[in-house]
Structures are given as C-alpha cells and as structure tokens.
User: Which sequence fits this backbone?
C-alpha cells in the first residue's frame, strides 16, 4: 500500500506447510492437486471499492471476477474504519484452513490515518470469522504510530505458528517492515511487533512479500525516498538476516510499485508483477530463479481492474464451491470477446435477464459466435453460433450447484463509439491531399489523464476507421514536456504548392505545435511550447485545449485555447507562432469550461464549448456565434446543443469538433462520452475512460443549431 493510493499489483505467498524436511514436513515440488487459482483484491478508493473481492483462474494468467466484481465480504462488518485494502490470502499448514489479512483503512481519511489490520479465518473460502487488531491500542510505545499497511501471513514451520508481517511508519521515520505471531485462533497477535527489515539507504520500504525458494526466503518490496522501484532482500531465516540486493527488478523505465510474486501450479516458474502506475496498467514478468525476469504481458487478461491483492492455488472442489456461490449466469454472457463485437459496450440487464451485443459494421447477423469465455462448471445451451437476423435468441445457463436460468440475447450493428478503445477530445479534419477524414483524439484510459502519446485514425466514410498509429510521442519527440498528452487540433495548409499539416497539442498544461507533410505523420515538434502562460488579466484555469481555425473567407489562421477562460489569437504565416499583440480573452459566458471549437457557415462564425467537468455526467456542449473570428460572441437563449441521454445510458457528452462534408451543407458533430454502459458506475474514473462518437448536426432556417440527440446507433456511412 502506498501514500498515493494508486493501483497495486497482486501476489501469492506459498503455503509453506513444511518448507524443509528438517521441520517434519515434506517440501512440495508440485501443487498437491491444485488446478486453479483464487485471486482476492480490492478495486479503488471509494467506499464500495475498499472491500474484498474474488476472481478465479485456471491457468494463472486469465482471471474472471466473481460476484460481478462486487465485494464478497462486507467491509463495514469486519473493519473499524468501514473499509479494507490490500487483501492477502494463505492456505494453512493443515491444507484446509484459510487465513486472510487486510489493511483496516478508508483512504478518504488520509494515507496516515489507520492503526489497525483485520484478521479473517475460514474453512471453506465462503464463510469467514474476523477480528480487528489495532496496533496502537494493543501494544505499548506506539504513540507516534502513523500507519499500518499491507499485512501478509506466512507459516513458520520452526515456530509452528503463523507469522504476520506488515509495514509501519512512526513519526518522521521511514516506513519499515515489522512482524509478529498470531495466536492459535488467529484473532489477535500474541507477540510484540518486531522489526523484520528496513532499507539500508534509510528510505521507505512497503508492501513486503516473502517467497520461499531453494532454501532461501526472498522478501520483495517497494523502495521509496532513496530511489523508487522493486527490490528484494534474501535470508536463510524467516525472521532475520535479510540482505538487500542491489538490482532493481522492474523491466521498465516507467515508475512502478506494488511488487507481487506467485508461483504457477505444477511449474518451476514464478510470476513477478508490479503496477506501472503512471500508465495505469500492470506489467507481468516470469522467472524460474527469482533473479532474471521476462515480460509476459501478452498472456495476461482480466475482466476487472484490481488493486493490491493476492493469488491462492485451489483445487477443483474449491473452485466449484466458489463458482456455485459467487458466479452469476449474467457474468458469462458479459465475457464475449469476438472481434465483431464492441465488447466494452455489451449491455446486460440482470432484472430482465437480457444481454445486448453491439456489433461492428459488416457483421453477419445470421452467424454470430460471441466467443463467451469458457468457465469451468458453466454450460450454455444451445451452443453458438447464433442467428440474430430474425431477432433475439434464448439460451439456458447451467452452473453446477445452481438452478438453470434462461436469458435472452439480442444483437445489432452500432456505429457509436466509432473507435475501438478509450479515446477523448476528438479533433476531425478532412484532408484535401488524401481525400480522407482524419481523427485526432486524446489517448484515454490512463489514470488521471496521464497518457503521453497521440494516435490518429483515417476514414473515407466516417464509419470505418483505420488506426494510423502514433503520430507524436511526448517522451521521444518533445523536449519541453513529457506528460499529459491532451486535446489536439489540426490544420491543413497549402504552402508553396505543397500541403503541410500543423498539429497543435497540449502537453504538461502547455500548448505546442508539430509539423508534417502528411496528416498521419511523422510529426516534428517545433522545439518549444507555443502557449505557456495565461493571457493578461486571467488568474485561474489552464493553458490547454487548443483549437485551430482557418477562416475560409480570408485564409487567415487563428488559435483558440483555455480552461476556465477562452482566449484567441492570430497565427502568424509560419503557423508555428502567434501574433502576441492579437491575444484576446473571448470567454462567452459563465458556462464556458473548455474545449473551444470554431467553424464557419453562411456568414456566421460558430463557437462551441464544453460546460461542467469531464468527470461529470452533465458535461455538455453549448454554442454562440459572431460576425468575425475574434468578435463578440452572441449567446442564444437556448444554446445547449448536446447533453446526456440518461434513458439510453449516454453520459458525459462533450469536448467536440465539427466536420462538414466537402461541397455539401451536411454537418456532423464528433464528441466523447463516458464509456457505455459502465462509465456511469465508475465515479471520477469515468472522466478518463471515454469513447468517441459521431452524430449528425443540423441547423434551423435562421442558422441556429438544432439540439443533437446523442445516439448508440450512430450515423450511416457516407457514400
């Protein structure tokens, strides 16, 4: 667990019932009948997320959440704070008792707010007894204790007891790892906490994970303060003598934390994984010696986003028992992974027992195989493929230990979202050079908008989009900023008979420009930021969200930008610098937040902007108009043109661009929304898990913009 509360890796401590022959136990070289895995984890920092969840796997790589990724143990019933984090699960030395320990903590109260852990015990993995151990109240000399983090349990065969170890911070000292023995009933600690390990560099060490391997105890942990990363310390004794190794074990140059190690069933291989928290993802590596690790990310998949958890090998009876208790028929119908299905947008209704499969353009409705995940002890009849050309199909779900249930599946082609994956802040351009439409979005799906690269997409019909790859990578291509790649915009200009493309983008809350001979790149950055400070008189807000507009009447180019304010300026002829004397604050009214979009139609200059916050379901688009690109903006009385459609599960519609079909008075609005249907349940995370959509935009006879109804079906492809 760490002070930033970011995602953590998951781990598995071997059930060391007899780790060496001298203890009277036989060392297990195989998995003793284990053929699956139980993964216990939590998911985030809100009240419901700080709770114990379960998932299962047959191979240790592909994991499926149980109970619909909802808690299997209620935090309020077991904790003193109302929340728990960092679950660690262990099979006991008797092979049939299970021990689970968690941090007793609610992150909303602060990262140095907890003093307790929770101990849980079960004989069936279903029913658990629990008790709270408050270290500060339980033991003397703990007056300056600030936090108790990430407890784990390991069996000590020499002592014949279960040892719990965790990290603690006292006063100004760094976090250190301590240990104590649990009592016989696993309801309390019977011994005073003793220091197990501290960093030789006097930096913090957290999230300890002990693995026994070839006669040695390997303690993996995260270092902080004196170099950040994953290291290990090794000892031939469980409770002392750990010597830190110099080597950092992560296989990436990105920042990492939350080291986690588990051993694969019937294998000599271990998995080391860690959280690449600036990228919002995990990296998985494999090793047979716990010294050399190879990246195996491509083999791993999960239908949930875990934080700091652990994995326990289980047998077939235990797997069957868990599925019978916590696996729901609707879950298997949510696992479709066929390429023709927009899998992120599958819609399930547990009350009506229905499933809707949104299909990509070109799907053959007469023969759809959803490729539902194969789950042990779960059967679907009839088997795929299914014929949806005449309507919905009924299937029966059989889960061993449950009554069969009937569900109705329907499917049809949906064009929204138009891109596969998470993208936002879309800019669209029609290129006279390529005779194609080009989309330039923010790469989304990264925690707190932490993406660092931009992609582009091309289409001839606004429906079928080709991924053109990365056109600008901040770490590689930009010298003055390396983070927060947001909200680009693009201009095509013909200079000396040749087309040039000018790509304006946000990086580190500044605005830059890159140039190319092609709308898909490669682009070369100008070498410095174009906009770095606020206009005169502006105190708040950010220098983000550029929009470039080339006036078709004069061919003069303008740049607009701002969050909390709207600013505009004339671009110089070189398109990579601005006329600083022309900078003007143009904020239309109090509804303006960000995302300016300017276009021209029938003598009017239209200004569109987004209201509210991109994390809000009420993020929406308003408009005004002017007689010139930098003139006073008139705001119509009814100027809301794009907003949520709660009845259809569409929320957070905003940050748009507009495209006109060349030679026609035919217009389309391109915008992002929360990912559907899960976005509305994600809290603030919905604001960086967004999707790009396109719908038609129409005008009244007086030039006012008609309200756009956001759709799931989207538009028909252009002819």
Assistant:
């Amino acid at each position: 667990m760490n002070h930033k509360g970011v995602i953590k890796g998951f781990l598995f401590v071997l059930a060391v019932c007899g780790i060496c022959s001298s203890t009277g136990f036989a060392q297990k070289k195989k998995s003793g009948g284990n053929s699956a895995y139980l993964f216990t984890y939590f998911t985030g920092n809100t009240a419901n997320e700080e709770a114990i969840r379960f998932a299962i796997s047959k191979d240790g790589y592909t994991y499926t959440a149980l109970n619909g990724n909802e808690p299997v143990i209620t935090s309020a019933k077991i904790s003193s704070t109302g929340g728990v984090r960092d679950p660690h699960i262990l099979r006991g030395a008797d092979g049939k008792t299970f021990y689970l320990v968690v941090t007793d903590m609610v992150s909303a109260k602060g990262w140095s707010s907890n003093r307790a852990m929770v101990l849980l015990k079960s004989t069936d993995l279903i029913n658990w007894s629990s008790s709270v151990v408050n270290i500060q109240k339980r033991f003397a000399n703990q007056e300056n204790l600030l936090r108790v983090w990430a407890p784990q349990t390991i069996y000590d065969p020499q002592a014949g007891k279960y040892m719990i170890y965790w990290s603690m911070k006292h006063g100004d000292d760094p976090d250190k790892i301590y240990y104590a023995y649990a009592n016989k009933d696993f309801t309390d600690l019977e011994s005073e906490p003793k220091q197990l390990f501290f960093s030789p560099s006097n930096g913090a060490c957290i999230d300890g994970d002990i693995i026994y391997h070839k006669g040695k105890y390997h303690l993996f942990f995260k270092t902080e303060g004196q170099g950040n990363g994953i290291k290990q310390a090794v000892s031939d004794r469980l409770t002392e003598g750990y010597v830190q190794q110099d080597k950092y074990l992560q296989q990436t140059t990105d920042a990492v934390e939350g080291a986690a190690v588990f051993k694969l069933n019937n294998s000599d291989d271990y998995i080391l994984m860690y959280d690449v928290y600036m990228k919002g993802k995990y990296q998985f590596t494999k090793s047979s010696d716990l010294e050399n690790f190879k990246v195996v990310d491509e083999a791993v998949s999960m239908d949930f986003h875990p934080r700091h958890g652990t994995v326990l090998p289980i047998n077939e009876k235990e797997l069957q028992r868990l599925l019978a208790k916590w696996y729901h028929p609707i879950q298997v119908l949510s696992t479709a992974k066929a390429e023709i299905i927009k899998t992120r947008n599958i819609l399930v209704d547990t009350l009506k027992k229905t499933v809707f499969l949104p299909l990509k353009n070109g799907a053959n409705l007469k023969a759809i195989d959803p490729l539902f995940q194969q789950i042990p002890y779960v059967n679907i009849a009839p088997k795929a493929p299914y014929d949806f050309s005449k309507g919905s199909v009924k299937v029966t779900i059989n889960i061993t230990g449950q009554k069969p249930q009937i569900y109705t599946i329907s499917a049809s082609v949906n064009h929204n979202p138009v891109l596969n994956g998470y993208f936002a802040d879309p800019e669209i351009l029609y290129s006279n050079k390529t005779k194609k439409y080009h989309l330039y979005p923010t790469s989304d799906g990264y925690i707190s908008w932490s993406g660092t690269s931009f992609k582009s997409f091309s289409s001839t019909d606004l429906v079928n989009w080709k991924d053109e790859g990365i056109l600008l990578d901040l770490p590689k291509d930009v010298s003055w900023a390396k983070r927060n790649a947001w909200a680009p915009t693009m201009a095509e200009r013909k200079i000396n008979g040749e087309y040039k493309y000018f790509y304006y983008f946000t990086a580190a809350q500044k605005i830059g420009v890159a140039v190319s001979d092609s709308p898909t790149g490669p682009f070369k950055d100008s070498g410095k930021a174009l906009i770095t400070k606020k206009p005169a008189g502006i105190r708040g807000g950010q220098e983000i969200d550029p929009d470039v507009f080339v006036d078709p009447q004069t061919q003069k180019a303008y740049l607009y930008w701002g969050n909390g304010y709207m600013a505009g300026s004339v671009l110089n002829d070189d398109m990579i610098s601005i006329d600083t004397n022309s900078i003007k604050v143009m904020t239309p009214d109090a509804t303006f937040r960000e995302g300016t979009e300017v276009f021209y139609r029938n003598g009017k200059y239209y200004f569109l902007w987004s209201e509210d916050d991109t994390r809000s379901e009420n993020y929406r688009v308003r408009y005004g108009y002017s007689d010139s690109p930098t003139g006073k903006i008139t705001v119509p009385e009814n100027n809301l043109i794009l907003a949520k459609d709660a009845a259809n599960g569409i929320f957070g519609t905003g940050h748009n661009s507009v495209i006109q079909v060349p030679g026609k008075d035919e217009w389309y609005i391109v915008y992002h929304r929360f990912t559907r249907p899960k976005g509305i349940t994600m809290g603030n995370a919905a604001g960086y898990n967004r999707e790009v959509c396109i719908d038609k935009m129409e005008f009244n006879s007086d030039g006012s913009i008609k309200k756009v109804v956001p759709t799931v079906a989207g538009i028909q492809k252009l002819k």
Notes: Residues 423-697 form a domain with the Tachylectin-2; Chain A fold (CATH 2.115.10.20). Residues 1-31 have pLDDT under 50 and may be disordered.
